[in-house]
């Protein structure tokens, strides 16, 4: 961490967004934003002061007074404009994302696009934020519900999807009538800030969207601030558990999408070529830095004979900088991340797993300083091994064995995480047994990464999630609104007075 003044440096500085203005921080604490393929310093990001965080929340609180009264059609039209601007700037956004995060340009476009889908969903808020009405629940009495916004909400987002996950959060919070304070990852905030610039261009008023940067101090400030009513978090289990406990104690609504250990079951009747392609893509894409990556495959019966072909498939993947054409696997986010992944590979060998493919120290011409780890495969992996018990968050696939489907399901259900899982089979009966008996929130059938489209909610479970409502979809409308139930009776001059009623019933 550098404490020197950013003003003395020629490196660009990332701004804060407070009350509709992009402003320079007065902090003395800064972090470099580093290209993971080259180690080039792209920008410096400030760790916002407490006063700056307070100013961002105050701006949101002030703007809420008028934004909450803004007609729902007006809100929807802003997001119609916003999705157009994102489409028009897709190339620029993907290039920014690749430079600071490392994923390939096609994958970066996918990152932006999956967030764009939520923006499109937000534009349909007129059909989502509907209450209910029951007419004549008693004589002349109607009961109906209103879904009203909460106030200032906040989001804390991770490094691995710096476009998609912010777009999961602030569009749905804002379109339902709330204002928002976003804290993006300090490792790659540049594409997030560009998305916020486009959001203002689309018509989001001053104070409705605010951005602060920082680390643990900013996270704690958001958890503790009395004027923040709800927090959405995506990140590690350690930080997510801290956020949930601290913010819940402060009386806030909290949803935390956290760590994972996602399994895929491979039955011997599966289409071999499609399954091998799916496993390689889902395990090694984005250098394994997806919370929904397939990090463990459970090979059932004769599918265990497919290991050499899976290794051969992984060897065909090209490791290079994300900007280079034909790249399949880019760098991991930082030198520290690379060291951690390599350390876990070493521990896997020491703890008795068989290293079928070693991806350490790949030769990447022209990018020798990059944080590269190539596709790595272990077989004979069992619970108790570090490579199984921990989320590696790198391009490492663990292979376990099972005799039959029931044993494979029991193996997965014994793992504490419940983010995503998949099965590869041509048997409808096997697929039905799997979807019924598996204790995981998001299930894929011949789909390796079953992240739902935005009209459904992200539904991780067990140790992968805290809070009962997921991001985007119908569930998040409930998360970002308060249901107010109104029971009403109107009288006119012809209504006959019925006298004093001292019973609990309506009449």
TrEMBL record:
The EC number of this protein is 1.2.1.27
Q: Keywords, A to Z?
A: NAD, Oxidoreductase
Q: Does the keyword Chaperone apply?
A: no
What are the GO MF terms of this UniProt record? malonate-semialdehyde dehydrogenase (acetylating) activity; methylmalonate-semialdehyde dehydrogenase (acylating, NAD) activity
Q: Which domain of life is it from?
A: Bacteria
Domain Aldehyde dehydrogenase, residue spans = 22-486
Pfam families per the UniProt record, alphabetical? Aldedh
Q: Record's CDD domains?
A: ALDH_F6_MMSDH
User: Top enzyme class of this protein?
Assistant: oxidoreductase
**What family is this?**
Belongs to the aldehyde dehydrogenase family.
Question: Can you name this protein?
Answer: methylmalonate-semialdehyde dehydrogenase (CoA acylating)
């Amino acid at each position: 961490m550098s404490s020197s003044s950013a003003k003395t440096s020629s490196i660009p500085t990332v701004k804060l967004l407070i009350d509709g203005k992009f402003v320079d921080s007065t902090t003395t604490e800064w972090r470099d934003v580093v290209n993971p393929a080259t180690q080039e310093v792209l920008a410096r990001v400030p760790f916002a002061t407490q006063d700056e965080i307070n100013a961002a929340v105050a701006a949101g609180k002030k703007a809420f007074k008028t934004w909450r009264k803004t007609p729902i059609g007006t809100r929807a039209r802003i997001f119609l404009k916003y999705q157009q601007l994102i489409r028009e700037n897709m190339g620029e956004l993907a290039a920014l994302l690749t430079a600071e995060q490392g994923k390939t340009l096609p994958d970066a476009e996918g990152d932006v696009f999956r967030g764009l889908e939520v923006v499109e969903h937000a534009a349909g808020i007129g059909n989502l934020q509907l209450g209910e009405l029951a007419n004549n629940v008693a004589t002349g009495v109607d009961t109906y519900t209103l879904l009203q916004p909460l106030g200032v909400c906040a989001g804390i987002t991770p490094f691995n999807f710096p476009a998609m996950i912010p777009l999961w959060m602030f569009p749905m919070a804002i379109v339902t009538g709330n204002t928002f304070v976003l804290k993006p990852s300090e490792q790659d905030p540049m594409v997030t800030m560009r998305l916020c610039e486009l959001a203002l261009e689309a018509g989001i008023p001053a104070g409705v969207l605010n951005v602060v940067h920082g680390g643990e101090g900013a996270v704690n400030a958001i958890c503790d601030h009395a004027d923040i009513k709800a927090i959405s978090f995506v990140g590690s289990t350690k930080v997510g558990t801290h956020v949930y406990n601290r913010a819940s104690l402060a009386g806030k609504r909290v949803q935390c999408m956290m760590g994972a250990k996602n399994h895929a079951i491979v039955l011997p009747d599966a289409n071999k070529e499609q399954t091998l392609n799916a496993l390689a893509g889902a395990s090694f894409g984005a250098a394994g830095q997806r919370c929904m990556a397939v990090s463990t495959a459970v090979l059932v019966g004769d599918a265990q004979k497919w290991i050499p072909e899976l290794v051969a498939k992984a060897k065909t993947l090209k490791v290079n900088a994300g900007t280079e054409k034909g790249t399949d696997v880019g760098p991991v986010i930082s030198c520290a991340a690379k060291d951690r992944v390599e350390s876990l590979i070493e521990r896997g060998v020491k703890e008795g797993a068989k290293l079928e493919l070693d991806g350490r120290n790949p030769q990447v011409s022209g990018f020798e300083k990059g944080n590269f780890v190539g596709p790595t495969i272990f077989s004979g992996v069992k619970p108790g091994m570090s490579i199984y018990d921990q989320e590696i968050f790198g391009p490492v696939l663990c292979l376990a064995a099972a005799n039959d489907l029931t044993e494979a399901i029991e193996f997965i259900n014994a793992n504490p995480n419940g983010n995503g899982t998949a099965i590869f089979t041509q048997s409808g009966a096997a697929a039905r047994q799997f979807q019924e008996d598996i204790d995981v929130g998001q299930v894929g059938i011949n789909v390796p990464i079953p992240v739902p489209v935005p009209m459904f909610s992200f539904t991780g479970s067990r140790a992968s999630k805290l809070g009962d409502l997921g991001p985007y979809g119908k569930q998040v409308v409930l998360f970002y609104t308060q249901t107010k139930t109104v029971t009403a009776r109107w009288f006119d001059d012809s209504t006959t007075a019925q006298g004093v009623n001292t019973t609990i019933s309506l009449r």
